[in-house]
Lar family restriction alleviation protein (Shouchella xiaoxiensis), 116 residues
Amino acid sequence: MDCFCDGNTTSLKLEGDVGADPFWCMECGCNLELEDLPLSGELKAALAQWAEQYGNWIDWNKDQLLPDGVMREDHHNQEGRRLSAIIKGELKNRYDLQFIPSSMARMYASRSKPRK
Ligand SMILES: [Zn+2]
């Protein structure tokens, strides 16, 4: 794996981010290339699609949460959890994987509440 740990990391996390591949090294925090992971093509395609949908609960032009944004994020997190179980199966015991669910929609929701 191409990161600052000289390829010796065994600790990964799956976390969506805007415009980034969804895998990160737990040790150095490097964003990892999806292509470098020893996963099946089918799973990589599903992950690329999942990563692309990250943040589809936000209207980026207005920087606002969509009306059903919290539900969309929940759905994305469920899918991430499902995928991480499949990833663990494919990685066997070579890597530890931790899934970090997104809490962005909740952050937006609390921020946009009218204050009086
Ligand atoms: Zn690393």
Observations:
- Residues 11-111 form one domain.
